[in-house]
Amino acid sequence: MNAPEPSSDHLGTVELRIPSKPEWVAVARLAVAAIANRLPFSVEEIEDLKLAIAEACTMCIQQGPGSQTIDITCEAATAQLRVYVRDGRYRQRDDAGAKRPAVVAVDGEGLGIFLIQALMDDLTYSLDPQLGTELVMTKRVGA
User: Fold this and answer.
1) pLDDT tens for residues 82-136?
2) Which pTM was predicted?
3) Cross-sheet strand order for the sheet of 80-87
4) CATH C-level class of 10-140
């Protein structure tokens, strides 16, 4: 998964794999909202998280035709929630040990990335038609 080592304020990690279909995006939204609710986020911050997750999942579906799954990993800490959203092709490439650039963008990423950047405190992403899609989003409590 290439995630950073958890720090002393790490509360836990939750992983979810959903089918790469629009009708499953609501499950991802609800799961992330339930995790965020365990932290001292405001209702507005949780709504921002839900919208950002929906956008990230939609990007995985649109950018990753042929991918069967979307993998969502939530790392909860006392003052933030970091969420990784990846299409199944990304996981398969990781399993094969492929090297990938830190940020790759494709034409047409537009509004989804802009919206996620507006809703989250940090965003890094790799949108590559061959290697797969990954978005790493961080929301800090009270930021």
Assistant:
1) 999 999 887 555 555 555 444 444 444 578 999 999 999 999 998 887 788 899 9
2) 0.83
3) 10-19, 69-77, 80-87, 132-140, 122-128
4) alpha beta
